[in-house]
């Protein structure tokens, strides 16, 4: 059983959900890697099943197993969610914009969290949530969970007061004092001559 991607190198996969039976698949590696890069694991994609009973499912890429050394994809789980029941998904945060506190005052942008777990209908799940850091106008400003813009019907499963990003104070540069080189003491010519004569006598 293959999806409409089927050709060349294939990846074993499985399709499952609360309202369907488990369905083993094989998918084209190049096509899947392209889709996975574009959508991630929080966007619904259309999965076309080829065969006698050709069907199309709206699914989430629920789990991707990779080789720990080569990072090559070994297996994929597709989850077909109910259109009426809420699901949970991990959504990445994308930090964008500029703040003069970093650009002009040397502040350091501190990202307290990189992803959030959300709950909502699968068809409303965002691929990513953008964080506009231009709102950080001084060292006292904070961006909190409650400040994030999310689609209607989506709930972030974190405290509204949890910090997402802030600006840290610039690191103090330690003054590096140059090492003073001690001048090499030049011996008087007479001493050099005496040392040379002594050495020659010793050899003889």
TrEMBL record:
GO terms for biological process: translation. One of its GO terms (cellular component) is cytosolic large ribosomal subunit. Keywords: Ribonucleoprotein, Ribosomal protein, RNA-binding, rRNA-binding. One of its GO terms (molecular function) is 5S rRNA binding. Residues 7-78 form the Large ribosomal subunit protein bL25 L25 domain. It comes from the Bacteria. Residues 177-204 are annotated as: Disordered. Residues 86-168 form the Large ribosomal subunit protein bL25 beta domain. SUPFAM superfamilies: Ribosomal protein L25-like (SSF50715). It holds the Pfam family Ribosomal_L25p. The keyword rRNA-binding applies. NCBIfam families: bL25_bact_ctc. PANTHER family: RIBOSOMAL PROTEIN L25/GLN-TRNA SYNTHETASE, ANTI-CODON-BINDING DOMAIN-CONTAINING PROTEIN (PTHR33284), RIBOSOMAL PROTEIN L25_GLN-TRNA SYNTHETASE, ANTI-CODON-BINDING DOMAIN-CONTAINING PROTEIN (PTHR33284:SF1). This is 50S ribosomal protein L25. It comes from bacterium (Candidatus Gribaldobacteria) CG07_land_8_20_14_0_80_33_18.
